[in-house]
Design goal:
mainly alpha, Arc Repressor Mutant, subunit A, Tetracycline Repressor, domain 2, 3 domains
Length: 437
């Protein structure tokens, strides 16, 4: 349940004002979480809070002000809970596995069950402008630092693998958890079951044995066809779609107006309508291309792998290909991944078939590996695929291959190698991982 502010009943008018303000924030958090900031209006918030439309402005000047409070509360509540667990565990000397499981469970409970503020933060923050994000970064960084410090302490103690920096491990762990907001269904199993499964997977990886480095070269992976449109009309259409994909990826659905798409593509505003009848038509094609590119690329990569019984390297190849399409081979894929969860249900439903088709490719790959003894038998394929793709997809929020020339940053191939190690082998140290069959 959400935390409610408590005040003395002695000051009734003040108390009513505070309670009304809290009701507005609770209503807004739920709407921002379920429908997204751009789709939520002040009128809808007032209705959900059971207020007259105009009275909401007595408490908040704008929707932006409401969002700022919601985002702050979403991280602040979670920060206090995680800090309490970390400090208690350190004082009592609790082992890594016990504390890690508690931390994962707390994060997921707030995100998926107990706090619309937390889920609203996770789902809306990526779509904010850099200027809007800046005000919320200190608290988000403080929260991330709690995880980094916890992981670093156990890395220094030899409980966690030492070949990957704690800062990257913490981003990987947080990303795997945050993406659950896009796929977790409380009707299938409780959050506690998800927490237990995800904690074990993150600690020990998916494989039955530690595999070390996989024999996969990211540099050899490229688009499955690589064909450029030849006719002028086709080239212009492609130009428009790529411009729309860039805007969608960086600024979200609302920002992708036909006028802005035309400007980004270097065209006159009206000429876009020669190729597309509406913004929705552009969006549908960008979303479809994003998943079709990815499906074609991963299918091609695992089919082309010469040894069908080499399950570990086939999985590693599929992971590497997914990463290449996210960051290098397809502007459409990264646009799809970033905005899909914030789109209206009406739009998402039109693209479920292709998403399910992509999921089936992974499910078959993982089931073959499990049947061949390369994949742990104590984890179910579908939740594994969801958690694994979630960890990969969330990297678009925190990894930037364009910074690889700076100290401490990775190239895409180097980064992908680390992600493959974390997914296949987990974050725990070799000698601290339990026997897996």
């Amino acid at each position: 349940m959400e935390k409610v502010l408590v005040h003395s009943p002695d000051d009734e008018p003040y108390s009513r004002s505070v309670q009304t303000r809290q009701a507005i924030l609770l209503a807004a958090a739920k709407l921002f979480s379920n429908e997204g900031y751009n789709a939520t209006t002040m009128r809808r918030i007032a209705e959900a809070a059971k207020l007259e439309a105009g009275s909401i402005y007595y408490h908040f000047k704008s929707k932006d002000q409401i969002l700022d409070d919601v985002l702050d509360m979403g991280v602040r509540q979670l920060y206090e809970q995680i800090r309490e667990i970390v400090e208690r565990a350190r004082a009592e000397g609790d082992p890594l596995r016990t504390t890690f499981a508690q931390l994962v469970d707390a994060h997921l409970r707030f995100l998926l069950k107990e706090s619309d503020f937390t889920s609203a933060n996770i789902r809306n923050f990526p779509m904010l402008s850099d200027k809007r994000r800046r005000a919320h970064r200190p608290l988000r960084q403080a929260y991330a630092q709690l995880w980094r410090s916890f992981l670093q302490r156990h890395q220094d103690a030899g409980d966690l693998r030492s070949d990957i920096p704690a800062v990257l491990v913490s981003q990987f762990v947080l990303g795997a958890m945050n993406w659950t907001a896009e796929w977790y269904d409380s009707k299938r199993y409780p959050v506690s079951v998800l927490s237990e499964r995800l904690s074990k997977l993150l600690l020990d990886g998916m494989c039955t044995n530690r595999v070390g480095a996989a024999s996969v070269s990211v540099e050899s992976i490229g688009p499955a066809d690589g064909l450029e449109p030849k006719r002028k009309a086709e080239r212009t259409r492609d130009q428009i779609l790529r411009a729309a994909a860039r805007i969608l990826r960086e600024s979200g659905y609302k920002a992708a107006t036909m006028r802005r798409v035309a400007s980004e593509a270097g065209l006159e505003a009206g000429s876009v309508y020669y190729h597309f009848g509406s913004k929705e038509e552009v969006l549908d094609e960008v979303l479809d291309l994003g998943l079709r590119d990815l499906l074609k690329g991963v299918n091609h990569a695992i089919t082309a792998w010469p040894d069908k019984e080499d399950h570990v390297n086939r999985i590693a190849t599929a992971i590497a290909t997914h990463m290449v399409y996210l960051f290098r081979a397809s502007e459409f894929t990264s646009a799809n991944i970033r905005i899909y969860g914030m789109l209206p249900e009406e739009i998402r439903s039109r693209h479920r078939a292709i998403r399910h088709e992509y999921a089936k490719v992974w499910d078959q790959l993982l089931r073959e590996a499990q049947a061949g003894g390369a994949l742990r038998s104590d984890i179910k394929v579908v939740p594994l695929r969801q958690a694994m793709l979630g960890a990969l997809n969330w990297t678009v929020e925190w990894f930037d291959p364009g910074k690889c020339n700076r100290r401490g940053y990775y190239t895409l191939p180097a980064f992908t190698d680390l992600i493959i190690k974390l997914l296949l082998d987990g974050i725990s140290a070799n000698d601290s991982a339990p026997e897996i069959t």
